[in-house]
């Protein structure tokens, strides 16, 4: 203002050219628009006029009209230096208004900050947004968003976000949280104490719970979960799930409420002699304190007279329906492709009527009777396994010549042919591609 007065004083001597001054009257600065102002050039140095186009004072500096800015903050900004600032130098709150409504306050005594139309903040709080009232915001709280509301030591972020109780967090459009609760997401509500609701339109109405969004699948270690919970540990054979309060090495089961618990096979309701009516009826064990699995105080015995009691296959291969007798064992029969009972240590006698025969793995441990009256050729291929043994009988008049196909036939005398009818020979594979021929051969 002092600069304005000083400038006005400098121009008083030239005002006669642009206006009139009367004794006892106010000084009137000549008002012109930009066009008229430029038409006055050249004017007397120090002449002051008011430009009606940009509502500013101009002083003629001897060569041009210079806009008078003064020391105030210009509507179009100022060219400032490092020592300039916008604010106050005392402890009175700094207040901003729009339409004469408080729309910003930085308060030293309340230790609070409020920004937004008709917005105020509570003690030690921050409120940013439109229409937030200090009456609705609690101490030490943060409210960000239109009409958001944060109670004592709470945080509300989002349009109409509302923490209806103390020490809670609500983040999202119309998110609502109860006492010490957390609501994250649009239209999310955590109404129960110590509850957490996460995800769009999710509600946590039970205390001490965490509820994830409607229909959400949760993935741990995977970005594409295909069930309500999918865990990927990343190591083959390891699920990544650990249940620490269950019995070590126990089976898992569920109780009547669906909880996962240790499940032990027990002897309750299983009396001595318990049986079922048919071979297909199940035998059910129920809970008791007497453990069968991992225990030393119980014996579990199953007796069944049905010939096919759930054991009609072995390694996926059929078992013969022939009932076994004392001392027999199951052996594999390639002819019928079944396991069948056979007397242990007794060889099968196989009649060979033709004049040529090639041994196979199925001949291991058998007696081959060759009955043809003409000369017979028996071939031992290289595919016979180590340990293969077969007994050869010349039951007819035709002599049997034993030859190898990729198989060396070794004999003490270099013999390879049976000596005559009822001559016996044995062939034994001792190494890959190498066998020994023994018996009545020449």
TrEMBL record:
Gene3D superfamilies: 2.60.40.4050, Serralysin-like metalloprotease, C-terminal (2.150.10.10)
SUPFAM superfamilies reported in the protein's UniProt record: Adhesin YadA, collagen-binding domain
Chain ranges of the Trimeric autotransporter adhesin YadA-like head domain: 153-173, 178-202
InterPro entries named in the record: Adhesin_Head_dom, Serralysin-like_metalloprot_C
GO cellular component term of the entry, any: outer membrane
Keywords: Signal
Signal peptide as annotated in the record: 1-19
Domain of life: Bacteria
Record carries keyword Metal-binding: no
Protein name per Swiss-Prot or TrEMBL: Trimeric autotransporter adhesin YadA-like head domain-containing protein
Source species: Frigoriflavimonas asaccharolytica
């Amino acid at each position: 203002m002092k600069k304005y007065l000083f400038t006005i004083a400098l121009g008083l001597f030239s005002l006669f050219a642009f206006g009139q001054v009367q004794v006892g009257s106010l000084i009137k600065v000549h008002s012109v628009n930009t066009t008229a102002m430029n038409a006055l050039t050249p004017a007397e140095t120090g002449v002051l006029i008011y430009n009606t186009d940009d509502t500013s004072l101009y002083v003629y500096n001897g060569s041009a009209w210079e806009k008078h800015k003064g020391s105030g903050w210009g509507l179009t900004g100022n060219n400032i230096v490092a020592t300039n600032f916008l604010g106050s130098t005392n402890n009175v709150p700094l207040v901003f208004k729009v339409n004469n409504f408080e729309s910003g306050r930085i308060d030293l005594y309340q230790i609070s900050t409020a920004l937004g139309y008709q917005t105020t903040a509570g003690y030690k709080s921050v409120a940013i947004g439109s229409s937030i009232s200090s009456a609705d915001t609690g101490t030490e709280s943060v409210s960000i968003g239109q009409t958001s509301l944060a109670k004592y030591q709470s945080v509300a972020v989002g349009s109409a976000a509302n923490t209806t109780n103390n020490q809670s967090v609500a983040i999202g459009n119309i998110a609502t949280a109860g006492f010490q609760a957390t609501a994250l997401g649009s239209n999310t509500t955590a109404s129960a104490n110590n509850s957490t609701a996460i995800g769009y339109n999710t509600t946590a109405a039970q205390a001490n719970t965490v509820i994830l969004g409607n229909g959400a699948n949760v993935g741990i270690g995977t970005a594409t979960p295909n069930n309500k919970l999918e865990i990927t540990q990343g190591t083959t054979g390891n699920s990544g799930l650990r249940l620490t309060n269950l019995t070590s090495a126990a089976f898992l089961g569920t109780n009547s409420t669906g909880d996962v618990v240790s499940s032990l096979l027990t002897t309750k309701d299983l009396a001595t002699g318990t049986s079922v009516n048919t071979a297909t009826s199940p035998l059910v064990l129920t809970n008791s304190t007497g453990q069968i699995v991992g225990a030393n105080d119980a014996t579990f015995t199953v007796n069944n007279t049905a010939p096919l009691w759930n054991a009609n296959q072995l390694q996926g291969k059929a078992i013969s329906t022939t009932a076994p007798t004392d001392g027999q064992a199951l052996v594999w029969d390639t002819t019928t492709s079944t396991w069948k009972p056979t007397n242990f240590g007794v060889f099968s006698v196989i009649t060979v009527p033709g004049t040529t025969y090639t041994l196979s793995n199925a001949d291991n441990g058998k007696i081959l009777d060759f009955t043809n009256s003409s000369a017979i050729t028996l071939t031992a291929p290289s595919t016979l396994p180590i340990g293969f043994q077969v007994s050869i009988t010349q039951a007819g008049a035709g002599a049997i010549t034993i030859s190898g196909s990729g198989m060396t036939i070794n004999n003490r005398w270099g013999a390879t042919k049976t000596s005559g009818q009822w001559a016996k020979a044995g062939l034994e594979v001792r190494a890959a591609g190498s066998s020994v021929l023994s018996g009545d051969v020449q």
